[in-house]
Design brief:
By secondary structure, this protein is of the alpha/beta class. The protein has two domains: about 15-130, 2,3-Dihydroxybiphenyl 1,2-Dioxygenase, domain 1 (Roll), CATH 3.10.180.10; about 140-240. The protein is about 40% helix and about 15% strand. It has eight helices and eight strands; from the N terminus they run βαββββαβββαααααα. The protein has helices spanning about 20-30, 80-95, 150-160, 165-180, 185-200, 210-215, 220-230, 240; strands spanning about 15, 35-40, 45-50, 55-60, 75-80, 105, 115-120, 125-130. The strands form two sheets. Strands 1-4-3-2 form a four-stranded mixed beta sheet, covered by helices on one side. α3 packs antiparallel against α4, α4 runs antiparallel to α5 (about 185-200) and α5 (about 185-200) packs antiparallel against α6. The radius of gyration is 21 Å and the shape is elongated.
Length: about 250
Amino acid sequence: MTAEPVRPNETIVPLLPCLAPEETLTFWRALGFRVTWEQHRPYLYLAFRWSGFELHYGRPAEGADAAQERTGGCLVMVDDVAPYHSAFTEAMRGTYGKVLSKGLPRITRYRAGASRFTVMDPSGNSIVFIRRDEPEGLEYGGSKQLTGLAKVLDNARILREFKTDDRAAFRALNSGLRRNPDAPAVEQAMALAALIELSLALDEPDRVPEWGGRLRVLGLTPDERARVTAFVADPALIEPWLATST
């Protein structure tokens, strides 16, 4: 008897550990997800649907701890990540009055042209939205052709967007800027702009006036200012320092 061939029409639904059922229900509903299943006894099972994909939740493994932010996660492959980030941040503002960028739950910043972002749910799971045509190997290191501050900038981008490690990116940029005082003005400006954004995200704004003052006097061209703006997720944070750059 000939076996039926495997048909390439599978659907995979991630089953994530849930440490905070009520908070999870509240969060995904706030982002516009529909609850397709809610069960608390005799065991926990929650299911959500939004657009064309689903997220399911069950009982966590023994010893799981949301504070460690290593609970679980999944990848959501999409054609373009920007509309998803826009939809989620708009929903957050509508429900919470702000974009949730710290603690749990939260969403990572999105820089124009980036190929991924992450949503962290109340249990510490990472739901990573990735553009299907994202170049391979980006997560494992920057370009080997770059040197000096350009290499630092590339590594900082990877730390921010792929490893979601703002602290490490901050340290790399701060150190790299000191070690490369003769770098091109546009590279210095990109580093200063990123430091301003990161310091505000990390609640360490003390040096923002210093970095902003240095950014203001670099004398950037319009094209260079555009490059600097594109390097950060929230251009409004650096606009006061770029507006008077000549």
